[in-house]
Structures are given as C-alpha cells and as structure tokens.
Amino acid sequence: MAERVEIMLTEEEVDSRIREIGEQISKDYAGKMVHLVCVLKGGSFFMTELAKRITVPVSLDFMSVSSYGGSTKSSGVVRIVKDLDEPLEDKDVLVVEDIVDSGRTLSYLLELLKDRGPASVKLCTLLDKPERRVVDVHVDYTGFEIPDEFVVGYGLDYDQRYRNLPYIGVVRFD
Ligand code: IMP
Ligand code: MG
Q1: Each residue's pLDDT expressed in tens, for the chain with a length of 174 residues
Q2: Whole-prediction pTM value?
Q3: How high is the pLDDT of residue 174?
Q4: Helical H runs in 61-103?
Q5: How many Cβ atoms from other residues are within 10 Å of residue 112's Cβ?
Q6: Which residue, judged by its Cα, is nearest atom 16 of ligand 1?
Q7: Nearest C-alpha to atom 22 of ligand 1 is from which residue?
Q8: Active-site residue among 15, 85, 90, 101?
Q9: Nearest residue CA, atom 20 of ligand 1?
Q10: Bridge-partner residues for 5, per DSSP?
Q11: Does the CB atom of residue 103 touch ligand 1 within 6 A?
C-alpha cells in the first residue's frame, strides 16, 4: 500500500500564523515574562518557532506525557514521562501543544500545573480539532482549527515519523 502526505497547511501559512500568535502573546504579556512549557515531543517545533516571535522575556521548560493505548487514539490515562525541571511558583505559564484532540491530555495536564502555584496558566495550541472534543478545555491561543483528520508534520507524528515535515499534512493510503 503506497503512503503519501497531502498538504493541508503550507509552510508559509503555518509560519505566518505563528508570527501573528507571537505578536498577540507579546501584547497580552506586555511587562511580564512568559514561561513556555512545551509538551514533548510534538510541541517542540511549534514552541521554538513561537518563542522566536515573542518579544517579551521568555523562559522555557519541557515535559513529556504519554497516554496509554494506541498511537492514533488518546485513552484518557496520562502518565508523566518527563517532568519539568523548574518550579512554576509565581510564573506566567503558557503551555505550548501541537494539537488538542479529545482534550483529555490537556485537561489533565492543566490541572496538574495549576496545583503548582503559578501566577497564571494559559494554553496555546498550533492545531485544534473541535469536533473531536470529549473533555472541555479552554484554549487561549489557537493556530488553526482543522477538520477531523489525522495530521502529521510540524512536530506531529504517525508512528514517530513525519515530525520533521515543515508543513501540516494528512497521510493518505492509496
Ligand atoms: P488528546 O488527549 O485526545 O487531546 O490528544 C492529544 C495528543 O494526541 C496530541 O498531543 C497528539 O500527540 C496526539 N494526536 C491527536 N490527534 C493527532 C493527529 O491528528 N496527528 C498526530 N497526533 C495526534
Ligand atoms: Mg502531543
């Protein structure tokens, strides 16, 4: 079976949207420092591009969570694989994710981070599939709302592949 990736969002579209979000975040956090929390591995490409477009002071930290179960479906049970290096006390935390799908991962994660005493916690996601939402999650910054398709690229994988694509695409099997 041949496998190909059909482009959904071009590199230019993604880059220019990240610029816009960076500008918005810079305005919203004026006079503050923003602490970006990247959810590995998928959020890493988005977070580095976004960080470059933010003009207020930025600090970064990384965490990795994994949901038990299959690669294309989130089971709702979340395990911390790698925790943050720094405490969150009094920080203005902005969680940076690749995609919000069912919302299970993020709703779990946001509650966990809020318990660590940050000044604020907001969520920024490159992609959102609103049709798929099972658990309500408030998203503060969204790159693109997309239809219910399994997408790859810009950090998103299919079985660990395609993360390095500079655009967002859909895997098609012909
Ligand atoms: P949620 O808990 O269902 O919102 O799923 C979140 C995680 O599932 C994301 O952080 C991704 O790692 C993965 N995921 C959901 N949809 C896609 C997709 O279309 N492509 C690749 N990974 C996805
Ligand atoms: Mg992810």
Answers
A1: 789 999 999 999 999 999 999 999 999 999 999 999 999 999 999 999 999 999 999 999 999 988 765 555 555 668 899 999 999 999 999 999 999 999 998 999 999 999 999 999 999 999 999 999 999 999 999 999 999 999 999 999 999 999 999 999 999 988
A2: 0.94
A3: 83
A4: none
A5: 14
A6: 101
A7: 156
A8: 101
A9: 151
A10: 171
A11: yes
Q: What is the pLDDT of residues 75-106, one digit of tens each?
A: 566 889 999 999 999 999 999 999 999 999 89
What the block records as the tokens of 50 is 């976004």
**Is residue 107 in contact with ligand 1, taking CB distance under 6 Å?**
no
In the chain, the DSSP E strands lie at: 3-9, 34-40, 58-67, 78-82, 92-100, 120-128, 141-145, 151-152, 168-173
Q: Which ligand minimizes its atom distance to the CA of 43? A: 2
Structure token pair of residue 174? 């012909």
Given CA atoms 6, 12, 16, 22 in this order, what sign does their dihedral have? Answer: positive
What is the reported pLDDT for 35?
98
Nearest 5°: CA angle at 81, between 35 and 91?
Answer: 15
Class of domain 11-148: alpha beta
Query: What pLDDT does residue 79 have?
Result: 86
Note if 159 is an active site residue.
no
Q: Give 29 Cα–ligand 1 centroid separation in angstroms.
A: 28
